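Budget justification aside, the reviewers requested a transparent look at the raw inputs and outputs of the sequence design task funded under Objective 1. We therefore reproduce one unedited record. The lines immediately below are the structure tokens for a 159-residue chain.
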């Protein structure tokens, strides 16, 4: 079976050779100077950093919840919410550009969110922050690996 030929830069290359070159480059076989592993100390530091970061987010969320739920549960806060709902009901669009919809909840939305849906708030905050941390850590490891392998300006060795 003859290989298919493709025209690249005016020369004919068998497609299996082009694919093989692409796969070799993808797997990192062309650049042997770059190590294929990250040092264990870097992995340990990134992991410890993540756990410290996640703990700080969790502690912050719990502190906000502990301070806000009692404050929003007071009778004054409930009166303020009921007053706002009454004002929203009066704004029917005849005196302003927008007609407001009256909130159906008898309690303030922030109170319901922090009291009843707190686990969803924590997960909804930790998932994207964890993804962001992972991307930043991955890029930082790549920069560190690249700077360790690049020659110094004098050309005498690693920078």
């Amino acid at each position: 079976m003859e290989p298919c030929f493709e025209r690249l830069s005016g020369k004919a290359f068998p497609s299996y050779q082009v694919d093989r070159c692409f796969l070799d480059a993808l797997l990192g076989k062309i650049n042997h100077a770059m190590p294929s592993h990250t040092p264990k100390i870097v992995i340990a530091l990134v992991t410890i950093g993540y756990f410290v970061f996640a703990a700080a987010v969790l502690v912050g969320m719990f502190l906000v919840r502990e301070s806000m739920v009692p404050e929003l549960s007071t009778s004054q806060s409930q009166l303020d919410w009921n007053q706002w709902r009454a004002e929203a009901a009066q704004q029917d669009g005849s005196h302003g550009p927008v007609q407001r919809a009256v909130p159906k909840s008898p309690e303030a939305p922030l109170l319901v969110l922090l009291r009843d849906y707190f686990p969803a708030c924590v997960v909804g905050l930790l998932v994207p922050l964890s993804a962001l941390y992972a991307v930043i850590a991955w890029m930082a490891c790549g920069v560190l690996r690249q700077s360790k392998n690049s020659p110094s300006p004098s050309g005498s060795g690693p920078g």
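The chain has five helices and two strands. The CA atoms of residues 7 and 13 lie 7 Å apart. Computational costs for records of this kind are itemized in the attached budget.
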